[in-house]
């Protein structure tokens, strides 16, 4: 009874603290998304200066480096937050964001850009720590709705970030104020500085208004922290154990294939849209791509916020998961077939398929996995942790694969050309769809939406 009434830490965070946590998470995601529209252009500029031709591969490397760093260092930040508290770890992450976003904007070589992106990922363990903070200050009845705050902040930040990144890139080409300044020689510095300023603002908010969620007594019980290698071995063992199960393992492979295909697109989408129309591309600018990603974010929010509940109640989670997989696959395969005639109408249809499909797949996958874990009597934390680890690996593998395939095919003609990377996305989505039929899931067993 006491557990239902009180959060695990004994601290019941007020609305003010939750608002600050929401803003910190949202600003984190703005900083992450703000580089997406111009990252390919920055790589292209630096590659030309260094006489490097493997542009696609470098785009994949820069995108993968952030996810790889988060995958490797999130357990370390989580363990540190158990020992010294959530608040200081959140603030350390914000300081890291401030430094390395600016460093990324000032990068004069691809190695410098890669180092800055990797280090930004190292210090950005804030999402996992923010979830731990919510767990500390929430009762079981409050937990679901408060965790939804993190999801909402994630979606909103990922919508605003790319839009700002696109609109503020190459400011000297748009506004005379920036001509002859450092922003002309470093055309992508302005959005990076904005990301740094937002991180400083978050740091001030956290310092002034965010109380510590983990009491000293709780921290003192956690003085022994596992080594990084032990954590990684435990994670790998847990993933292997879950993959060996029949239903849960099949669903985890479905999600892996989906995420693999979806993140291949992350590396090659802008490589295609910025390509000269005479070569088959669309000739988009950074601002054009920023608007597209903002549209994807808005459609994702609408889908997860308004459509997923009614559709799941009517058709069931498994049908929605399969439908979302096929819809995403159609959108991904259609990308390189976009026509310059009515190009924005094409983009609306294609991004609509991708965003709505992803918005249907992600929550449906989590819903089914939760139900299967309860049905087979597995610990939910272990199951979800294994799923997240496998998805993280897919997010690392996807951009690398997309960038490499683009590099070796973009200048070819015939069956293997710049369409190939997008065809791979479609094949992976089809494999995920077919494998989903191995998952035995009864609609009556799914948790309430």
Explain this structure.
It is built from 18 helices and no strands. It folds into two domains: 8-225, MFS general substrate transporter like domains (Growth Hormone, Chain: A), CATH 1.20.1250.20; 227-439, MFS general substrate transporter like domains (Growth Hormone, Chain: A), CATH 1.20.1250.20. The protein is mostly helical. The protein is globular. The model is unreliable at 444-449 (pLDDT under 50). The chain has helices at 2-5, 15-33, 36-49, 55-84, 86-105, 110-123, 126-137, 140-168, 182-185, 189-209, 216-220, 228-243, 247-273, 286-315, 317-334, 343-375, 380-409, 420-435.
Structural features:
Growth Hormone, Chain: A, single chain, 449 residues, mainly alpha, 18 helices
CATH topology of the largest domain: Growth Hormone, Chain: A
Main beta sheet strand tally, sense and closure: none
Mean pLDDT equals 84
Q: Could you tell me the radius of gyration in angstroms?
A: 22 Å
CATH superfamily name of the largest domain? MFS general substrate transporter like domains
Straight-line N-to-C gap: 25 Å
SS summary, helix count: 18
Structural class: mainly alpha
CATH class of the largest domain: Mainly Alpha
Residue stretches low in confidence (pLDDT < 50, at least 5 long) are: 444-449
- Helical residue percent? over 70%
General shape: globular
Number of DSSP strand runs: 0
Taken as a percent bin, the fraction of beta residues is under 5%
């Amino acid at each position: 009874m006491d557990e239902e009434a009180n959060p695990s830490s004994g601290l019941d965070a007020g609305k003010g603290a939750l608002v600050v946590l929401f803003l910190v998470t949202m600003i984190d995601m703005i900083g992450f998304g703000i580089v997406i529209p111009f990252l390919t252009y920055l790589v292209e500029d630096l590659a030309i200066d260094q006489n490097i031709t493997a542009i696609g591969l470098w785009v994949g490397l820069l995108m993968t480096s952030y996810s790889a760093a988060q995958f490797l260092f999130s357990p370390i930040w989580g363990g540190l937050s158990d020992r010294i508290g959530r608040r200081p770890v959140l603030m350390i992450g914000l300081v890291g964001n401030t430094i390395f976003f600016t460093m990324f904007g000032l990068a004069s070589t691809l190695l410098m850009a890669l180092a800055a992106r990797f280090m930004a990922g190292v210090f950005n363990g804030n999402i996992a720590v923010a979830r731990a903070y919510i767990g500390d200050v929430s009762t079981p009845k409050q937990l679901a709705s408060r965790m939804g705050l993190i999801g909402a902040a994630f979606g909103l930040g990922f919508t605003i970030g790319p839009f700002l990144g696109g609109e503020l890139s190459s400011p000297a080409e748009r506004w005379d104020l920036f001509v002859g300044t450092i922003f002309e020689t470093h055309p992508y510095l302005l959005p990076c500085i904005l990301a740094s300023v937002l991180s400083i603002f978050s740091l001030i908010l956290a310092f002034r208004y965010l109380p510590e969620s983990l009491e000293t007594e709780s921290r003192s019980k956690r003085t022994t922290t596992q080594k990084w290698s032990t954590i990684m071995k435990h994670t790998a063992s847990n993933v292997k154990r879950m993959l060996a199960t029949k239903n849960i393992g099949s669903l985890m492979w479905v999600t892996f294939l989906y995420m693999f295909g979806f993140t291949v697109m992350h590396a090659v989408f802008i490589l295609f849209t910025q390509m000269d129309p005479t070569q088959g591309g669309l000739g988009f600018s950074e601002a054009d791509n920023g608007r597209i990603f903002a549209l994807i974010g808005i459609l994702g929010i609408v889908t997860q916020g308004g459509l997923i509940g009614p559709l799941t109640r009517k058709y069931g989670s498994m049908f929605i998961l399969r439908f979302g997989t096929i819809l995403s696959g159609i959108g991904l395969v259609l990308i390189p077939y976009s026509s310059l005639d009515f190009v924005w109408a094409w983009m609306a249809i294609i991004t609509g398929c991708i965003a709505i499909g992803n918005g249907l797949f992600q929550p449906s996958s989590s819903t089914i996995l939760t139900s299967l874990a309860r049905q087979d009597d597995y610990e939910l934390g272990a199951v979800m942790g294994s799923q997240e680890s496998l998805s993280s690996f897919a997010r690392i593998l996807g951009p690398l694969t997309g960038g490499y395939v683009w590099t070796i095919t973009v200048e070819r003609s015939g069956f293997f050309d710049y369409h190939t990377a997008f065809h791979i996305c479609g094949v992976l989505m089809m494999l995920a769809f077919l494998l989903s039929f191995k998952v035995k899931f009864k609609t009556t067993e799914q948790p309430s939406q």
